[in-house]
Amino acid sequence: MVKLRLREGEAVTDAVKRFRKLVEHSGIKKEMRRREYYEKPSETKRRARRRAERREQINLRAN
């Protein structure tokens, strides 16, 4: 949960910018996009496996 308190004399536009940044950093936006559509468990596993493979490729290149 993201909480935001307005600072003394802070403009609303500045508070909205801070709020957006907090939401982005907390991962709420990413989670919302992920849950927007149902994903079969097999697709979830496939995506995780591909992510791991990409990570491994990057690690091999770095070494």
From TrEMBL:
Gene3D superfamilies: Ribosomal protein S8. Residues 33-63 are annotated as: Disordered. InterPro entries: Ribosomal_bS21, Ribosomal_bS21_sf. Residues 33-45, 53-63 have a biased composition (Basic and acidic residues). GO terms for cellular component: ribonucleoprotein complex; ribosome. Keywords: Ribonucleoprotein, Ribosomal protein. It comes from the Bacteria. GO terms for biological process: translation. The keyword Ribonucleoprotein applies. Pfam families: Ribosomal_S21. GO terms for molecular function: structural constituent of ribosome. Belongs to the bacterial ribosomal protein bS21 family. NCBIfam families: S21p. This is Small ribosomal subunit protein bS21. It comes from Rubinisphaera italica. The gene is rpsU.
